[in-house]
Write a structure and sequence with these properties.
The chain is built from three helices and nine strands; from the N terminus they run ββββββααβαββ. It is α+β, with helices and mostly antiparallel strands.
Length: 170
């Protein structure tokens, strides 16, 4: 005997939905009721979320402006290039990227929360630190374009151990 007030699902509806960036994906709905106004659904199941946490040792570095070299060619300063490579290496050393990178590349939005720990109150602009971090995570297009990155930043001071703690969710 069925309890009073419960509704039994009528079935499952699989529908193609076009996401924010024009990508097609399949969404699963549980059909609860069919009426002349349409199909009422309980909602789609949430996609699996993933999370990565890692620490970048050393003081955070802000993204520097491009420089002009001989002949009018522009280049990225070596300090910025080295830090961006250091960011990618910290991520690579802490996780099995062969499994993680495809998941991040498929995600519509990547949330990044970074906590920058500096030695003292004299530090580079936080916006430039975030730019250097995001460009390092982008890693020459390995994680896709950084226009999908959304995030926040926190500030801390640690005289003995300057670092950046990063949490990436998708």
């Amino acid at each position: 005997m069925k309890a009073v007030g419960t509704v039994r699902p009528l079935g499952i509806l699989l529908r193609t939905v076009i996401g924010a960036h024009g990508r097609k994906r399949l969404s699963l709905f549980v059909v609860m009721e069919i009426s002349p106004l349409g199909v009422r659904c309980r909602g789609r199941e949430k996609e699996k979320m993933g999370e990565i946490r890692f620490t970048i040792d050393g003081p955070p570095v802000g993204k520097e402006r491009p420089r002009t070299g001989r002949g009018g060619h522009f280049y990225t300063p070596s300090r910025t290039k080295n830090y961006e490579a250091h960011v990618w290496m910290a991520l690579w050393m802490s996780h099995n990227l062969s499994k993680v990178v495809p998941l991040i590349q498929k995600a519509e939005k990547v949330n990044i929360i970074a906590t920058f720990y500096f030695k003292n109150k004299r530090h580079p602009d936080l916006d430039n630190c975030v730019k250097a971090l995001w460009d390092g995570l982008q890693g020459e297009g390995r994680l896709g374009n950084d226009n999908r990155f959304v995030g926040g930043m926190n500030l801390g001071y640690d005289k003995d151990n300057p670092r950046t703690e990063v949490t990436v969710t998708w």
